[in-house]
Amino acid sequence: MERGGVDGGGSGIGRACCEVLAREGARVVAADINLQSSQETLSLLPGSQQHMAVGVDVSDKGSVEAAFKSIQKHYGEPPSLLVNSAGILALAPHTDTSEEEWMKIIDVNLKGTYLITQSFTKMLLDGRGEVQGTMVNVASIAAKTGLPDFEPYAASKGGVVSLTKNCAAALIRKGIRVNCVLPGLITTPMIQLLKEDLQADIKKSTPLGRAGRPHEVAELIAFLLSDRSSYMVGSCVEVTGGYMM
Ligand SMILES: NC(=O)c1ccc[n+]([C@@H]2O[C@H](COP(=O)([O-])OP(=O)(O)OC[C@H]3O[C@@H](n4cnc5c(N)ncnc54)[C@H](O)[C@@H]3O)[C@@H](O)[C@H]2O)c1
């Protein structure tokens, strides 16, 4: 049975990934800075006793290492599938973004993705000649577009795209496939930070004419985690309803 870890698993796209992976028969670890929300995710999964909820702050190396150790202890082996969905959004006008705000977003979205990748691959490769693992990072279409007030968020997601490609090149010969997705506007708690008129503008510019649902991203992620995408390496796939295509 596959073992899948999802950070940011307590909400939105991460929670939908937990649901889709569980439906496909994986044992799922829902990891989130908000432990209560990852426990809530667990309660939504069929066969919840075989799954696990973990508290983790992806921007903190000690917390990430402790989370992987607790997963290893619980299952006797590390996860073989991983989704990096933890993320934060904050909007700030160019001249008003403080150094602290800038670093917070980079720390969670970019450094966090790196720290999780590093611990995941170290644990999976540890003492093993050949492994089979897949990982999907959640970037954003903001990585490729220019939107006012999105600078630190967009830069962090541009970094995730670059990190994906470089990790994919480094890890594929060791048996670990890495890809990423670039969602457009998806209806999750995160977008409550966007003003109604901005959301309306984005929907208007989206050929499909609406925001996406978390499961529409999670189904793509499940495909990228599976052998059905065996020839995809370092791919960054847009899932946007056509926004900014
Ligand atoms: N919703 C969108 O429109 C959209 C679009 C493009 C990309 N994304 C990306 O998708 C991912 C999921 O976002 P979402 O829309 O589901 O938002 P969400 O707010 O519903 O979920 C994000 C989750 O990440 C967790 N989290 C935040 N900081 C963390 C940390 N330091 N350590 C561990 N967990 C942490 C939160 O507690 C939350 O459960 C994010 O990376 C986001 O940037 C979202």
TrEMBL record:
Keywords: Fatty acid biosynthesis, Fatty acid metabolism, Lipid biosynthesis, Lipid metabolism, Mitochondrion, NAD, Oxidoreductase, Phosphoprotein. Pathway: Lipid metabolism; fatty acid biosynthesis; Steroid biosynthesis; estrogen biosynthesis. Pfam families: adh_short_C2. The keyword Phosphoprotein applies. It comes from the Eukaryota. It is found in: Mitochondrion matrix. GO terms for cellular component: mitochondrial matrix. GO terms for molecular function: estradiol 17-beta-dehydrogenase [NAD(P)+] activity; quinone binding; testosterone dehydrogenase (NAD+) activity. It catalyses: a (3R)-3-hydroxyacyl-CoA + NAD(+) = a 3-oxoacyl-CoA + NADH + H(+); testosterone + NAD(+) = androst-4-ene-3,17-dione + NADH + H(+); 17beta-estradiol + NAD(+) = estrone + NADH + H(+); 17beta-hydroxy-5alpha-androstan-3-one + NAD(+) = 5alpha-androstan-3,17-dione + NADH + H(+). Its EC number is 1.1.1.239, 1.1.1.n12. CDD domains: SDR_c. GO terms for biological process: estrogen metabolic process; fatty acid biosynthetic process. Heterotetramer with CBR4; contains two molecules of HSD17B8 and CBR4. Belongs to the short-chain dehydrogenases/reductases (SDR) family. This is (3R)-3-hydroxyacyl-CoA dehydrogenase. The lineage of its organism: Eukaryota, Metazoa, Ecdysozoa, Arthropoda, Crustacea.
